[in-house]
Amino acid sequence: MPRHFRPWATLFVLLLLACRAAAASPEGIVIRFSHVVADDTPKGIAARAFKRIAESRSNGRIRVEVYPRSTLFDDNDEILALQMGAVEIVAPSLSKFGKIGFPSFELFDLPFLFRDTEEVHRIMRGPVGRQLLADLNRQQILGLGYLDNGFKQMSANRPLLRRSDYAGLRMRIQPSRIIAAQMIALGAQAVPLALSETRLALSTRVVDGTENPLSNFVTQGIHEVQSHLSLTQHGYLGYAVVTSQRFWQQLKPADRELLEGAMHEAIEIGNNVASAHERRALDVIHAWKETHVHRPSEAQRSELEAAMRPVYERAKTRIGARLLEQTLHELSEARLRRRP
User: Where is the signal peptide (predicted)?
Assistant: First the structure.
Protein backbone atom coordinates (compact mmCIF):
# COMPACT_ATOMS: atom_id res chain seq x y z
CA MET A 1 0.00 0.00 0.00
CA PRO A 2 1.40 3.44 -0.89
CA ARG A 3 2.53 5.29 2.21
CA HIS A 4 0.25 8.30 1.58
CA PHE A 5 -2.81 6.02 1.77
CA ARG A 6 -1.72 4.19 4.89
CA PRO A 7 -2.84 6.69 7.60
CA TRP A 8 -6.38 6.75 6.15
CA ALA A 9 -6.51 2.96 5.90
CA THR A 10 -5.29 2.64 9.47
CA LEU A 11 -7.88 5.12 10.72
CA PHE A 12 -10.65 3.23 8.92
CA VAL A 13 -9.60 -0.08 10.52
CA LEU A 14 -9.37 1.56 13.93
CA LEU A 15 -12.89 2.96 13.67
CA LEU A 16 -14.25 -0.35 12.38
CA LEU A 17 -12.71 -2.34 15.23
CA ALA A 18 -13.76 0.23 17.81
CA CYS A 19 -17.36 -0.10 16.61
CA ARG A 20 -17.06 -3.87 16.83
CA ALA A 21 -15.96 -3.53 20.45
CA ALA A 22 -19.07 -1.49 21.25
CA ALA A 23 -21.23 -4.26 19.81
CA ALA A 24 -19.67 -6.98 21.97
CA SER A 25 -22.04 -9.24 23.86
CA PRO A 26 -22.79 -8.06 27.42
CA GLU A 27 -22.75 -11.66 28.65
CA GLY A 28 -19.03 -12.05 28.04
CA ILE A 29 -15.77 -10.14 27.69
CA VAL A 30 -13.70 -10.16 24.52
CA ILE A 31 -10.10 -9.00 24.84
CA ARG A 32 -8.08 -8.38 21.70
CA PHE A 33 -4.34 -8.70 22.35
CA SER A 34 -2.38 -7.33 19.38
CA HIS A 35 1.37 -7.64 18.97
CA VAL A 36 3.96 -7.45 16.20
CA VAL A 37 6.15 -10.53 16.68
CA ALA A 38 5.72 -14.25 16.01
CA ASP A 39 3.82 -16.70 18.21
CA ASP A 40 7.01 -18.54 19.15
CA THR A 41 8.83 -15.51 20.60
CA PRO A 42 8.78 -14.75 24.35
CA LYS A 43 6.06 -12.12 23.79
CA GLY A 44 4.04 -14.46 21.59
CA ILE A 45 4.29 -17.24 24.17
CA ALA A 46 3.25 -14.86 26.97
CA ALA A 47 0.24 -13.68 24.95
CA ARG A 48 -0.93 -17.24 24.34
CA ALA A 49 -0.35 -18.12 28.00
CA PHE A 50 -2.50 -15.15 29.03
CA LYS A 51 -5.26 -16.36 26.71
CA ARG A 52 -5.12 -19.88 28.13
CA ILE A 53 -5.09 -18.81 31.79
CA ALA A 54 -7.74 -16.08 31.50
CA GLU A 55 -10.16 -18.26 29.53
CA SER A 56 -9.68 -21.24 31.85
CA ARG A 57 -10.17 -19.30 35.09
CA SER A 58 -13.25 -17.54 33.75
CA ASN A 59 -14.73 -20.80 32.42
CA GLY A 60 -14.80 -19.25 28.96
CA ARG A 61 -16.73 -16.15 30.00
CA ILE A 62 -13.64 -14.09 29.09
CA ARG A 63 -12.36 -14.72 25.58
CA VAL A 64 -8.92 -13.53 24.49
CA GLU A 65 -8.16 -13.11 20.79
CA VAL A 66 -4.42 -12.92 20.09
CA TYR A 67 -3.28 -11.21 16.87
CA PRO A 68 0.48 -11.78 16.28
CA ARG A 69 2.86 -10.59 13.53
CA SER A 70 1.18 -7.19 13.04
CA THR A 71 -2.01 -8.95 11.85
CA LEU A 72 -4.06 -5.97 13.01
CA PHE A 73 -1.55 -3.18 13.62
CA ASP A 74 2.18 -2.73 13.26
CA ASP A 75 4.35 -1.07 15.86
CA ASN A 76 3.67 2.39 14.43
CA ASP A 77 -0.06 2.08 15.10
CA GLU A 78 -0.66 -0.22 18.07
CA ILE A 79 -0.66 2.38 20.84
CA LEU A 80 -3.11 4.57 18.90
CA ALA A 81 -5.28 1.50 18.35
CA LEU A 82 -5.35 0.92 22.11
CA GLN A 83 -6.26 4.54 22.84
CA MET A 84 -9.09 4.46 20.28
CA GLY A 85 -10.54 1.24 21.68
CA ALA A 86 -9.73 -0.90 18.62
CA VAL A 87 -7.81 -3.37 20.84
CA GLU A 88 -7.71 -3.98 24.58
CA ILE A 89 -4.10 -5.03 25.21
CA VAL A 90 -0.84 -4.30 23.41
CA ALA A 91 2.78 -4.86 24.41
CA PRO A 92 4.92 -2.25 22.63
CA SER A 93 8.66 -2.18 23.02
CA LEU A 94 9.71 0.32 25.65
CA SER A 95 11.15 2.61 22.97
CA LYS A 96 7.67 3.22 21.53
CA PHE A 97 6.49 5.21 24.52
CA GLY A 98 8.90 8.02 23.77
CA LYS A 99 6.94 9.16 20.73
CA ILE A 100 3.69 9.50 22.71
CA GLY A 101 5.16 11.73 25.38
CA PHE A 102 7.05 9.37 27.72
CA PRO A 103 10.73 9.69 26.73
CA SER A 104 11.80 8.41 30.14
CA PHE A 105 11.07 4.85 28.90
CA GLU A 106 14.04 5.28 26.56
CA LEU A 107 16.18 4.75 29.65
CA PHE A 108 16.14 1.07 28.67
CA ASP A 109 17.61 1.92 25.25
CA LEU A 110 20.88 3.18 26.69
CA PRO A 111 23.84 1.17 25.36
CA PHE A 112 25.77 -1.04 27.79
CA LEU A 113 23.62 0.07 30.72
CA PHE A 114 22.76 -3.44 31.95
CA ARG A 115 25.09 -6.39 32.35
CA ASP A 116 22.36 -9.02 32.50
CA THR A 117 18.61 -9.56 32.84
CA GLU A 118 18.83 -9.60 36.63
CA GLU A 119 19.92 -5.97 36.55
CA VAL A 120 17.10 -5.10 34.13
CA HIS A 121 14.54 -6.67 36.46
CA ARG A 122 15.96 -4.84 39.47
CA ILE A 123 15.22 -1.51 37.78
CA MET A 124 11.85 -2.57 36.34
CA ARG A 125 10.55 -3.92 39.66
CA GLY A 126 11.99 -1.11 41.74
CA PRO A 127 10.97 2.54 42.20
CA VAL A 128 12.09 3.57 38.69
CA GLY A 129 10.10 0.92 36.86
CA ARG A 130 6.98 1.39 38.98
CA GLN A 131 7.04 5.16 38.43
CA LEU A 132 7.39 4.77 34.66
CA LEU A 133 4.25 2.60 34.51
CA ALA A 134 2.37 4.99 36.81
CA ASP A 135 3.26 7.91 34.52
CA LEU A 136 1.27 6.28 31.69
CA ASN A 137 -1.92 7.21 33.54
CA ARG A 138 -1.54 10.72 32.11
CA GLN A 139 -2.71 9.36 28.75
CA GLN A 140 -5.31 6.96 30.13
CA ILE A 141 -3.00 3.96 29.70
CA LEU A 142 -2.63 1.37 32.45
CA GLY A 143 0.62 -0.57 32.76
CA LEU A 144 0.15 -4.27 33.57
CA GLY A 145 3.82 -5.24 33.68
CA TYR A 146 7.11 -5.60 31.87
CA LEU A 147 8.08 -8.43 29.56
CA ASP A 148 11.54 -9.50 28.40
CA ASN A 149 12.79 -10.24 24.94
CA GLY A 150 16.54 -10.15 25.37
CA PHE A 151 19.77 -8.37 24.66
CA LYS A 152 20.33 -6.92 21.21
CA GLN A 153 22.97 -7.89 18.67
CA MET A 154 24.12 -6.10 15.51
CA SER A 155 23.87 -7.39 11.95
CA ALA A 156 24.95 -6.24 8.49
CA ASN A 157 26.63 -7.68 5.43
CA ARG A 158 29.98 -7.25 7.12
CA PRO A 159 31.22 -7.80 10.70
CA LEU A 160 30.44 -4.99 13.14
CA LEU A 161 33.16 -5.27 15.75
CA ARG A 162 34.77 -1.83 15.81
CA ARG A 163 33.46 1.69 15.51
CA SER A 164 34.97 2.04 12.04
CA ASP A 165 32.90 -0.93 10.81
CA TYR A 166 29.72 1.16 11.13
CA ALA A 167 30.90 4.08 9.02
CA GLY A 168 28.29 5.03 6.41
CA LEU A 169 25.87 2.17 7.15
CA ARG A 170 22.13 2.77 7.15
CA MET A 171 20.96 0.93 10.27
CA ARG A 172 17.30 0.13 10.87
CA ILE A 173 16.19 1.04 14.39
CA GLN A 174 13.03 1.36 16.41
CA PRO A 175 11.87 4.97 16.75
CA SER A 176 13.98 6.14 19.69
CA ARG A 177 16.14 9.21 19.93
CA ILE A 178 18.48 7.37 22.28
CA ILE A 179 19.00 4.52 19.80
CA ALA A 180 19.37 7.02 16.96
CA ALA A 181 22.06 8.86 18.95
CA GLN A 182 23.79 5.52 19.55
CA MET A 183 24.01 4.81 15.82
CA ILE A 184 25.20 8.32 15.04
CA ALA A 185 27.91 7.96 17.69
CA LEU A 186 29.11 4.87 15.81
CA GLY A 187 29.23 6.75 12.52
CA ALA A 188 26.10 5.13 11.04
CA GLN A 189 22.80 6.60 9.88
CA ALA A 190 19.71 5.66 11.90
CA VAL A 191 16.62 4.69 9.88
CA PRO A 192 13.43 4.14 11.94
CA LEU A 193 11.28 1.35 10.50
CA ALA A 194 8.51 -0.91 11.75
CA LEU A 195 9.65 -4.45 12.53
CA SER A 196 7.23 -5.80 9.92
CA GLU A 197 9.05 -3.79 7.23
CA THR A 198 12.59 -4.65 8.30
CA ARG A 199 13.28 -7.89 6.42
CA LEU A 200 12.15 -6.45 3.09
CA ALA A 201 14.14 -3.27 3.68
CA LEU A 202 17.26 -5.33 4.37
CA SER A 203 16.75 -7.65 1.40
CA THR A 204 16.31 -4.72 -1.00
CA ARG A 205 19.23 -2.77 0.54
CA VAL A 206 17.02 0.11 1.62
CA VAL A 207 18.94 -0.33 4.87
CA ASP A 208 22.24 -2.10 5.44
CA GLY A 209 21.87 -3.55 8.91
CA THR A 210 19.89 -3.63 12.13
CA GLU A 211 19.93 -4.47 15.82
CA ASN A 212 17.63 -6.98 17.52
CA PRO A 213 17.55 -9.85 19.99
CA LEU A 214 18.32 -13.23 18.44
CA SER A 215 14.74 -14.48 18.69
CA ASN A 216 13.57 -11.64 16.45
CA PHE A 217 16.37 -12.27 13.97
CA VAL A 218 15.16 -15.83 13.49
CA THR A 219 11.38 -15.45 13.69
CA GLN A 220 11.46 -12.49 11.29
CA GLY A 221 13.88 -14.24 8.93
CA ILE A 222 16.41 -11.41 9.25
CA HIS A 223 19.33 -13.83 9.45
CA GLU A 224 18.40 -15.02 5.94
CA VAL A 225 19.11 -11.59 4.43
CA GLN A 226 22.16 -10.61 6.50
CA SER A 227 25.51 -12.30 6.01
CA HIS A 228 27.09 -11.27 9.32
CA LEU A 229 25.83 -11.23 12.91
CA SER A 230 27.94 -9.66 15.66
CA LEU A 231 27.13 -10.65 19.26
CA THR A 232 27.59 -7.21 20.76
CA GLN A 233 25.08 -7.56 23.63
CA HIS A 234 25.03 -3.78 23.62
CA GLY A 235 21.47 -3.09 24.73
CA TYR A 236 18.24 -4.53 26.05
CA LEU A 237 14.88 -4.92 24.33
CA GLY A 238 11.77 -5.34 26.45
CA TYR A 239 8.10 -4.49 26.41
CA ALA A 240 5.45 -2.90 28.59
CA VAL A 241 2.15 -4.76 28.55
CA VAL A 242 -0.59 -2.12 28.69
CA THR A 243 -4.33 -1.70 28.49
CA SER A 244 -6.61 1.33 28.40
CA GLN A 245 -8.00 2.75 31.62
CA ARG A 246 -11.40 3.12 29.98
CA PHE A 247 -11.60 -0.62 29.26
CA TRP A 248 -10.16 -1.57 32.63
CA GLN A 249 -12.59 0.59 34.60
CA GLN A 250 -15.55 -1.03 32.85
CA LEU A 251 -14.58 -4.41 34.30
CA LYS A 252 -15.90 -5.75 37.57
CA PRO A 253 -13.31 -5.81 40.39
CA ALA A 254 -13.29 -9.61 40.37
CA ASP A 255 -12.52 -9.66 36.65
CA ARG A 256 -9.72 -7.13 37.05
CA GLU A 257 -8.22 -9.32 39.76
CA LEU A 258 -8.53 -12.41 37.57
CA LEU A 259 -6.89 -10.70 34.60
CA GLU A 260 -4.11 -9.18 36.69
CA GLY A 261 -3.27 -12.63 38.04
CA ALA A 262 -3.40 -14.18 34.57
CA MET A 263 -1.12 -11.50 33.15
CA HIS A 264 1.36 -11.81 36.00
CA GLU A 265 1.66 -15.56 35.38
CA ALA A 266 1.85 -15.09 31.62
CA ILE A 267 4.67 -12.56 31.95
CA GLU A 268 6.59 -14.96 34.18
CA ILE A 269 6.16 -17.69 31.56
CA GLY A 270 7.38 -15.38 28.79
CA ASN A 271 10.35 -14.19 30.82
CA ASN A 272 11.36 -17.73 31.78
CA VAL A 273 11.55 -18.85 28.15
CA ALA A 274 13.37 -15.74 26.89
CA SER A 275 16.90 -16.93 27.66
CA ALA A 276 16.22 -20.43 26.29
CA HIS A 277 14.88 -18.92 23.08
CA GLU A 278 18.02 -16.86 22.68
CA ARG A 279 20.14 -20.02 22.84
CA ARG A 280 17.90 -21.88 20.38
CA ALA A 281 17.87 -18.93 17.99
CA LEU A 282 21.66 -18.83 17.97
CA ASP A 283 21.70 -22.56 17.16
CA VAL A 284 19.37 -21.89 14.20
CA ILE A 285 21.64 -19.13 12.91
CA HIS A 286 24.72 -21.34 13.24
CA ALA A 287 22.91 -24.12 11.37
CA TRP A 288 21.95 -21.71 8.60
CA LYS A 289 25.68 -21.45 7.77
CA GLU A 290 25.18 -18.52 5.39
CA THR A 291 25.27 -16.06 8.27
CA HIS A 292 28.71 -15.68 9.85
CA VAL A 293 28.58 -15.17 13.62
CA HIS A 294 31.20 -13.00 15.31
CA ARG A 295 31.88 -12.48 19.00
CA PRO A 296 33.69 -9.21 19.82
CA SER A 297 36.74 -9.39 22.05
CA GLU A 298 36.75 -7.52 25.35
CA ALA A 299 38.87 -4.82 23.75
CA GLN A 300 36.40 -4.46 20.86
CA ARG A 301 33.43 -4.26 23.24
CA SER A 302 35.26 -1.61 25.25
CA GLU A 303 35.87 0.37 22.07
CA LEU A 304 32.17 0.25 21.15
CA GLU A 305 31.15 1.19 24.69
CA ALA A 306 33.54 4.15 24.71
CA ALA A 307 32.24 5.31 21.32
CA MET A 308 28.67 5.32 22.61
CA ARG A 309 29.42 6.88 26.00
CA PRO A 310 28.44 10.42 24.78
CA VAL A 311 24.86 9.13 24.39
CA TYR A 312 24.54 9.23 28.19
CA GLU A 313 25.13 12.98 28.29
CA ARG A 314 22.44 13.50 25.67
CA ALA A 315 20.13 11.20 27.61
CA LYS A 316 20.10 13.57 30.56
CA THR A 317 17.93 16.01 28.65
CA ARG A 318 15.85 13.28 26.98
CA ILE A 319 15.00 11.02 29.92
CA GLY A 320 15.98 13.28 32.80
CA ALA A 321 19.25 13.60 34.73
CA ARG A 322 17.60 12.63 38.00
CA LEU A 323 16.12 9.41 36.61
CA LEU A 324 19.43 8.44 35.02
CA GLU A 325 21.37 9.15 38.21
CA GLN A 326 18.89 7.13 40.27
CA THR A 327 19.20 4.19 37.88
CA LEU A 328 22.99 4.28 37.82
CA HIS A 329 23.06 4.49 41.62
CA GLU A 330 20.74 1.49 42.02
CA LEU A 331 22.81 -0.56 39.57
CA SER A 332 26.04 0.41 41.32
CA GLU A 333 24.64 -0.61 44.71
CA ALA A 334 23.39 -3.92 43.30
CA ARG A 335 26.79 -4.71 41.77
CA LEU A 336 28.53 -4.07 45.06
CA ARG A 337 26.16 -6.49 46.80
CA ARG A 338 26.73 -9.14 44.12
CA ARG A 339 30.51 -9.10 44.48
CA PRO A 340 31.87 -12.36 46.02
Answer: 1-23
